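Q: For a teaching session next week I want to show students how multiple molecules come together into a single three-dimensional assembly. I've collected the sequence lines for a complex. Could you give me the predicted structure tokens for the whole thing so I can convert them for display?
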Amino acid sequence: DVKVTQSSRYLVKRTGEKVFLECVQDMDHENMFWYRQDPGLGLRLIYFSYDVKMKEKGDIPEGYSVSREKKERFSLILESASTNQTSMYLCASSSIGGRHEKLFFGSGTQLSVL
Amino acid sequence: AQTVTQSQPEMSVQEAETVTLSCTYDTSESDYYLFWYKQPPSRQMILVIRQEAYKQQNATENRFSVNFQKAAKSFSLKISDSQLGDAAMYFCASTDSWGKLQFGAGTQVVVTP
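A: Of course. Below is the structure for the complete assembly, covering every listed component.
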């Protein structure tokens, strides 16, 4: 069974901490995405990557960075966590086939910044 | 830029009845796909149905069907014979040429016995 695994289901951090959210996929997918989910706003794209060591900004990249050193792993980094980054974070991957490809999602990380 | 609008925050339906979720979108792409994803309480996003913009025939997957009106940029989802397991948040989404998805705000479906 194909999988996108996010390292933590729940995470509590303090303001100013550096936070790493890890995502690993076992489908040899080229594309990987980080979304943020907030009530009433749906899912918003933070960053995405189409290849190893490659990254592109999404719609809301401010306050975030990413790292993709290996094809299967895509990390989201909060350099200095703030309370307005309290949210659900979803990682997804897809093959390079194009616009028709469905995304495979992880189960999400609920991050609380206190 | 793409935008996707879901104007119904919540919809309630009785078991075995039919419910229709609305979605409108705006895109500058000439070729695009539209999707409906379901997110149950487990938080695992599940693809329900997808529609290619060039296909006039509405997509159907078992009890799920869409009404795709390209000129009106409308893409509604109909759930027939609703079951308790259909209770979830439903997201409408459109994709650009690179496969990036733009999501709507979501519609919570409540199924009552």
